Every structure is written in structure tokens, then in C-alpha cells.
Amino acid sequence: MADVIGSALKRHEDVRLIRGKGQYTDDIKLPGMLYAGIVRSPHAHARLVKVDVSRALKMPGVVAAFTGADLKDEVGFIPTAWIPPDSDMKMPPHPALAVDMVRYQGDGVAVVIAQTPAQARDGVDAVEVEYESLPAVTNPFAAAQEGAPLVHEDIAGNVAFHWKVGGDVEEIFNRAEVVVRQEFRQQRLVPNAMEPRSAVAQWNPATEELTLWATTQNPHIHRLLMSGILGIPEHKLRVVAIDVGGAFGSKISCYPDEIIVSWAARRLNRPVKWTETRTENFTVTSHGRDHVQEVALAGTKDGHIEAIRVKTYANLGAYLSTAAPGVPTILFGLIVNGAYAIPEASAEVYGMLTHTTPVDAYRGAGRPEATFLVERMVDLYAHAINKDPLEVRNINLIPAEAFPYTNPFGLQYDSGNYQGALAKALEIVDYAAFRREQENLRQQGKYIGIGFSTYVEMCGLGPSEVAGAVGFQGGLWESATVRVHPTGKVTVFTGASPHGQGEETTFAQIVAQELGVPPEDIEVVHGDTSKIAMGWGTYGSRTTVVGGAAIHLADQKVIAKARKIAAHKLEVGEDDVEFEQGIFSVKGLPARAVTFQEAALDAYLAWSLPAGMEPALEGTAFYNPENFTYPFGTHIAIVSVDPDTGDVELMRYVAVDDVGVVINPMLVEGQIHGGLVQGIGQALYEGVEYDTNGQLMTGSFLDYAMPKARFFPKFETAHTTTPSPHNPLGVKGVGETGAIASTPAVVNAVMDALAPFGIQDLPMPLTPRKVWQAIASKGGHMHVHDAI
Amino acid sequence: MFTTPFDYRNAHSVQDVIEWLQEDPDNTKILAGGHSLLPLMKLRLSTVSHLIDIGQIPELQGIVLSDNELRIGAFTRYVQLVRDPSVALAAPLVAEAARVIGDLQVRNRGTIGGSLCHADPAADLPAALLALGAELEIAGPAGKRREDIDSFFLAPFITTLAPGEVLTAIRIPRIAQGARSIYLKRPHLASGYPIIGVAAWVVLRDAQVDSCRIAITGIGSVPFRAFSAEQMLVGQTFTRDVILRAAEQVASDQSFDDDDDGYKANLCRVYVTRALAALGNQG
Fold it and tell me: Which of UniProt's keywords are assigned here (chain B) (predicted)?
């Protein structure tokens, strides 16, 4: 059997998913099930004067209706699970249904429960709510200004926390030859998973157990948080994530809706389902990014970066979502030096409350915001000292011999060869030829540009000791059980919770490789707290890195036991047994052999086991990583800008990523493509806008520009392989690299194209109108170029 | 996404529709392809008590080509416009515009009559039909009438259709012999609707403009004809300078909402120029 690790196996899960046979939460139908609809505030900020459900209760099919007042004594506040250390964080109370104030458009004020979804929807319209509208603030910088409307009366200045890391860089800035300053707006994004959120709750009065099926990336974290919120002990609470259709971070959070249906199912003693509409997905499911960043870089005239200083106003929304405070701090501030050997750095973050949808992790979560600013600053610095951006990168990239490299914040980058990835990218793109062509085209009034992103990111969340040190209210190890059945078939239980990434396939590949069992004999089970003792879920590109490593450890336990059984059967010492491709054989005597399947059967029959050995064959392991992993690479974007319209066309996109050992190249390719589309989407198309009253102006696919396949050229991808030295599989994680690296590459390319107009920076997304305005304001190009 | 409750009736004749429309005119809507109406109802932006389905009315179907004109039944779906050989022959501009509407699902459902009556200022077909000088057949309680499409659109989502009236067919004069035509669309990145769509045709005789039409959708509050630019072009040699002047004329004749920066006027200039330049390069 050829190596399974490294082969492009087709996705096992696709057999059901692409045939429409997947089981999503909304597919669940239980006898007697009721349907919930939630009454949501149309105002971003208002006092609740009256919430009257009496008319709704008279509507056909309506069984019950509850308000915040009904829940408040029985349902606890929803906590965040991340408290940045030394930040003096204030956690605003977050009730599942608003009690006297609403704080963002979409904040829930009542729930109507009916016999059909349509009746629930009609019931929602029948609830009478009187609001006293109040001024709102949506921008995180504006929220920090004197006199800004307060989101929570008890939190002065809307500052949920102030967090600062790094050294004192002022002295360097005072004496530096060159200082470059720039403000960046990391615009707010909507994650837009294909499957909207859904929750079904069922109460069993006999056992007093609650089961919640929910669209979640982390069922065990949900169970932990919900047991506290609902007062149901953990062992009486089961959370199940069946097939989940994408998340990108938006299904980490423990949401009010899930709590409301759980409480209502118990109260009514009937199963209750809630499924969000696409409109609700835009308005109440967590958003991503949203920073105002003030950045300064100090360097020498000859291109050596000496320090970087970042001050960020990070928008957290109206309440603190589950992972929200960790995203703009730990996952952002600690890596603002990027892939560069910058001796000194500091990062200061104001976590701001605003009258907007709560913000949480979104693909990359903090690292895109950090990578963007450093990659953009390198280009601005190069421009300031009149050097080529590539040359400045070559001067400052961390050299390969410096690994493990400790960055200014104490992170230890595990391994890397940044120059190797850059060299590979430059094999694909002829840089000198591009610059010649660019010059020629400029003479003809045509504008093309090239942009680099020589990025590094941190993923594989993470060492639990570090999780604790940085304020994450949980561990970040992962569990695995590899259960071999008497026939040698295998069930793998993982505490990770993949929701589209394809680990049912990659995990089977790991087990197939290590146990020598055909992949089709392996089933991967995830996402059910009743089947998996504990786990921390899927986010932060941790699933294969941490969950996969746990499986590897469990495999070793299985092999060790099976080897003893085989040796016993072969009547030789354990050390005389070799194990390769599923066969135990006596060293030097390959004919004397026992298959893995035979050993498994022996383990279960237990007719003749080594003395003292327990029957059965399974291994359980808990892997607590030593460190984060640090994928890296070089991305190159080539764009053309049409000065007549401001249109940006992405002509070429080259991504050279080093994600360590690749288990399934096809899935890695897919992850990179998806990430690129989302990262480039941020650069060019996507962005949430609120009006001055806090109304979401981009609340549907009519207004919010999701990238479409036709917007993109064929991506040119390649890899270098630098295994992670501390991960047993050598893997580094790939789920977020595309989204992290691509945004600045594209913006750098557009700015390079616009250089002749004297334009150095524009806020994202770089929409045609914005680009055209910039060109027009620089007096360039008001006439039409088309030849006839 | 659930609509408010409504009742649904399936009409079998235009007469059914006219009668039923009069029963509760303020709360009744005609259902054609439904791709604009149903989303509005599901979002509860439109609350309709009665829906009249016109999908099974023979009088509203079919495409007939006669010597001088093409008659397209109001219930003709976009996909039929794209595929029909007589449309390709007599009014290729209509097929070209229909081809870039929405996506395949939309084209499989949406109808030409639905698009016109909904009167979304960002619809594609009106530009092509204005450029071709289409005439609309309308039936109502007072009998049948015909209306030139130039006067049909009054304001966004408002037409001259009176309560109880039904659009039954669109009559399009055969495009002039030797005409070159184009529909040039700039789709919105999110919605795919035209930010601007320019429909134009020109007949050149010895490089001079013998006749031409330009109609524009998406960028104004209603789709419009560029009359003065058309007049300016006739008799002129079809050169780059002439095209640029015509485009400038189109842009300066119009005032655009939300256009302090002049971007929309610029797009108008650029797209008219590009459309006309492409016609110059055809043939």
C-alpha cells in the first residue's frame, strides 16, 4: 500500500454531502416539535418601553411567547470565554433576551413559539414593542471619544478593556532616521457561512437531560458555557453538532438563540427549533475584523526596520462574544512584527463596545489584521526610503538560521525558511520582467501593479498553559480515541469539530497510514458530547495540528498493544516484531506474520492474550501542544487598474505556502483557495456599512459583495515544506493562511499600480468608485482612453 | 423567510386576470416569474393578499415573427429570449440583454413582462426595448390599448399601467437591415444588477451614421433614451471624436442622484463610449 499521508484522497464526507444526504441541524424533525421566531430590535440603541406578547399569543398556532422579563431570573448572562490578562476587562451583562435596553440592530426582545415556522413568523409580527430610540455609535474610534453614546451605562468611555504589550519603543522612534505613520481601517466583514445557524433543543423529563443540536464549531465549549447559563449540570447536557455547513469563526460563539430554545424546550417540555434567516445571519451572527489602527514604523535610511508601534481601537460590538476579546489582543497584538526581525515592538489595544453586532473570530482572527498592517507598512517604508519593497523584505525577513526565533513579544516561531518560500514564488513570477512591462504600459496610460505578502501566522491553538496565561477560559489540548473493532475496522473519536474542512478524510488518512488499515475501513466521529468525552473544537487552524496529533498518539497506544498481542501469537519477544503496512512480522522472517486485523480479533476474543493484558483494542490520547505552529509563505498579486472606471482586475495570484507536512494536498489546495477568496474579498469587495443610526446598510447579498468565482484568475499555488519540529506529524495548519496573507498582497499591488498618481493608501475595500475618486482627486485621467 | 398569508389563484385567460384584479386592486399582485416579487414578499417588504398566477394563459405566451415586427408574449421567460431563433434574427439586442440577466435560475423563471411591469430602474431589458422602440400591448377593464415604451416608465417601480390593467405582449419592430447592436452592462458586484447598461444600435453607410439609438438603464431613476446624442450622431462620420462627443452629451443631459463625485456621470460617459466604440469595431 502506497503512503496514504500525502495522497490526494477525495473527501469521504462528500459522498453524502454532495448528494444532499448530509444531516444539518435544520433537517432535524422531532415528534411534537415547535418552532421559535425571535422578535428583534429594529433600532441600534433604544430603551424598551413596552414588550407586549398578548396579541401574539392569540395568533393561530402560537403556543407561547416570552420576553426578557420571563427569562431573566432563570437564565444567566452569556459570558465571554476570553479575558485578556492585565487588561482590567469589564464584562457587560449579556442577557439572552434584552430586558430594558437594546444595544444593536437585531438584539432579541422576545421569542414566539408556534406549531409551524410560518405561524412563529406571523407571531413575531404580532408582538407589540415600544422603543424609545437613542443615539448610537458604530465606529470603534468614535466610541472612544468624549461624549459618545454609552453602550453600557456602567462601562465608562465604552472601553471594555485596555491591553498593552511590548517594550518602550519611544526612544527608537525619537532617534530614528525614518518614521512612517499610517492609519488603517480594517473594515468589518460578514462571515457568510453557507448554512445559516440553527438550534434544536429537546428536554427529557424522565432523565432531566437536555439535548441541544446546534450549528457549532465547538460543542464541548457550548456545553460548558450553557451548563452555567442554564443551570443544567454538564452531565445532563448533551450538545451535538451534526453536519455543519461552514462557519469561519461565526459558529464559535455561544449565542442567545441557542440558549432561548434550550430554556423554552425545558419550560414547555416540547422540542423547539430555531433556524435563522439569511437576514438574521447578516444582522445577528458574529461579524469579523473592524479595527481602527494607528501604526508607526521606525527604520534606517538603508532599509533596516527598527521598531513597530501599533495602537488599535478594536470594535467588539454591543456585547462580548465568546472569543471576542482574544482576537484583537493575543491573536493580533503578539504578532504585529510579522515575518520580520524587528527588534522592538509594542501593541496597544482598546477593546471598544459599540451599538453593532458582536464581533468574534473570522477566518484568521487577529492575524489578518496584524499581517495587513505590517505588510502594508513594509511597502510604505520602502516607498519612503525609495527602495524596492522586495529589497526591504530581503533585508528584514527573519533568516532561516534564526529558528526557533523569539519575536519581540516572546512568541517562539517554531521553524521557517522565509527566503525559500520567497525564492519559490519568484521562480513563478519574473519580477524584473514585470517591472519592465509595468513601465512600458505606464507609457501607454495603462496601470498594472505587483504586491507582496511575505507572511507568517500563528495557529494550531494551542498550548493549554499558554491558553491560561493569555486569558482563554479553557484548555486547548485535544482528545482522540482510536477504537479498533473485532473485525479490524476502526472508529476514530475526535474532540475537534470539523464543519467543512474535510478532517473525516484527513484523520482517516492518518490512521490508515499508521495502522495500515484501508481508509474506507475507518470512520471518524466528531461533534457529539455524548460520544466524545471532551474536546475543544475546530478554529484557529488547530484541527489537524492538535486533533491530528492526538490521533497519532492514540494510534501509538493501539499499535503498542497490538504488537504485544502479535508477539505473543508469534511466540517471539516484542522487540523481534516489526510492524509495517498493517502486518506484524518477525524480524528477518516476513512469512511469520500476523495482520493487524488478526491481532484485533485476538484482542476481543481474549482467548489467548499475554499475561495480565486487558481485552479489547483501543487507544485514547490527549495531546497538549508544546507551542503554536507558524505557517508562512510568500504571496504575490498582480493587478491592473482601469483609470476610466476604477476597476481593479486581479490578473495573477501566486501563493507559495509552507504549512509543514501536507496530509492531503487536494484539501490543502482547497483550504488555500477558499482563504484567498475571503482575503481578496476583504481587499476588493466586502465591507459592512452602518448608517449614523446604526442601521446595517449591507444586510443582504444585494448590497454586500460576496466574491464570486468569476472575479478570480486561476490561482497559482506551490509549497515549500518545513515541518513543525514540535508537532508529531510535522503539520502546521492551513485553514487560515489564504485569508491572512492575501489581503495585503492585493492592496500592495493596487497601490503599486496607482503609484504614478501619487496614491499610497486607500481604505478597503478598494471598490471601483473609491479608486476612481482617488485618481480623479489627484487630477489624473479624466478622459476616456478607448481607441476605436 | 415566510410571506404574510395570501391566497393564490391560477388564471386561465387575460379576462380572468382583469376581473380578479378589480376585486381588491390595492392588495392584489400578478405573479409571473416571481423572482422579484417573491423575495419581497418573503422579506415582508411587500404584503400581498391575493396572487394571480398568469403562467398558464395561452394569450401571454409565444414569440411570433412577422414581416415587420416581433411579437413576444408577456409571459415569455428570459431563457426563451436567449434561445429563440426569431429573437436572434429580428431583435438580437433583446437576446443579448436577456443573456446577462441574473443567473441561470433567474433566467429560467423570470419573464419579459414581469421585468417591465416591476419597473426596477436597474433592470436590463428596458434598455434593449427602448433602443428598439418597442410597443406594449395592454389589456384592461376598458379594453385593449397600446403604448410606446418611451412613455411607460414613470418612476422607480411605477409605470403607466392603471389598476386592473395587464401587459399582454411586447411588439418590437424588426431591427434595421445591417444594424450593429450591443448591450454593454456593468454589473453590480453584489447584486449583479446593472449599475449601468447601455443598449445601442447603429446603421452605418459609408462610415457615416445613417440611424442609431441609445438607451440606458441602471444609472438613472428610470431607463431612458439618449435622444440628443442620437440626433447628434446621425449624419456624422463614426469617429472616435464623434463618439466621445456623443457620450459627453449623454452624460451632461442627465442629472444623477448620489453623484457628488461625478462617478455616475463618468460611468455614463465611459460606457456609452465603449458601447459605441464596440459598434464601430463590429462589421
Answer: FAD, Flavoprotein, Oxidoreductase
